[in-house]
Design a protein that fits this description.
- This protein is an alpha/beta fold and 162 residues long.
- It has helices spanning 31-34, 39-53, 65-75, 94-103, 141-161, and strands spanning 14-19, 56-61, 81-85, 107-111, 133-136.
- It contains five helices and five strands, in the order βααβαβαββα.
- Strands 2-1-3-4-5 form a five-stranded parallel β-sheet, with helices on both faces.
- Helix 2 runs parallel beside helix 5 (141-161) and helix 3 (65-75) runs parallel beside helix 4.
- The mean pLDDT is 93.
- The structure holds 1,3,4-trihydroxy-5-OXO-cyclohexanecarboxylic acid (DQA).
- 1,3,4-trihydroxy-5-OXO-cyclohexanecarboxylic acid binds at residues 22, 85, 87-88, 90, 111-113, 115, 122.
- 1,3,4-trihydroxy-5-OXO-cyclohexanecarboxylic acid is lined by residues 22, 85, 87-88, 90, 111-113, 115, 122.
């Protein structure tokens, strides 16, 4: 009797979530701009969505540019994609942009606020050209929309290859 070849079970996708400087204070910091939801609240909603989508999250926040670069570097080959709110480093950090390029992973850039309705210095992102796309202006929901978009992209890549 012919034996059916067994396909290996698909490993769940792994996503690294990165929060840049001062996002640890979200909920207390400028609530008129960033809302009352804390980072822990946003992460709880993200984890719930990750379970629903069947993906695994690794979450990292730092106020230090070097620590963020180190974390992105160590993601190379370890995760499938990056969801990143680079916060103020969005507008200044060539180092974060280079780290994302070096990681060679699809990245989605998210922001709580609509940076284009704010000061001019926030209108330019050094990260956007190396990201797959940007989602901004929806508060904590930006992260959830970003996670959905990243997972859909990864699933599309998988089925395109298989
Ligand atoms: C932010 C926007 C940035 O301009 C700012 O420096 C932040 C937060 C946002 O999520 O809206 O810290 O990334």
């Amino acid at each position: 009797m012919a034996t059916r070849s067994r396909r290996p079970a698909l490993q769940p996708r792994r996503i690294l979530v990165i929060h840049g400087p001062n996002l640890n204070l979200v909920g207390k910091r400028e609530p008129a701009v960033y809302g009352n939801e804390t980072l822990a609240d946003i992460e709880a909603r993200l984890s719930e969505l990750a379970d629903e989508l069947g993906v695994k999250l690794e979450i990292f926040q730092s106020n230090s540019e070097g620590a963020l670069v180190d974390r992105i570097q160590s993601a190379r080959g370890q995760v499938d994609g990056i969801l990143i709110n680079p916060a103020a480093y969005t507008h200044t950090s060539i180092a974060l942009r280079d780290a994302l390029l070096a990681a060679g992973l699809p990245a989605v850039e998210v922001h709580l606020s609509n940076v284009h309705r704010r000061e001019e210095f926030r209108h330019h992102s050094l990260i956007a050209p190396v990201a797959v796309g940007q989602i901004l202006g929806f508060g904590g929901e930006s992260y959830l929309l970003g996670l959905r978009a990243l997972v859909a992209l990864l699933r599309g890549q998988r089925s395109a290859r298989s």
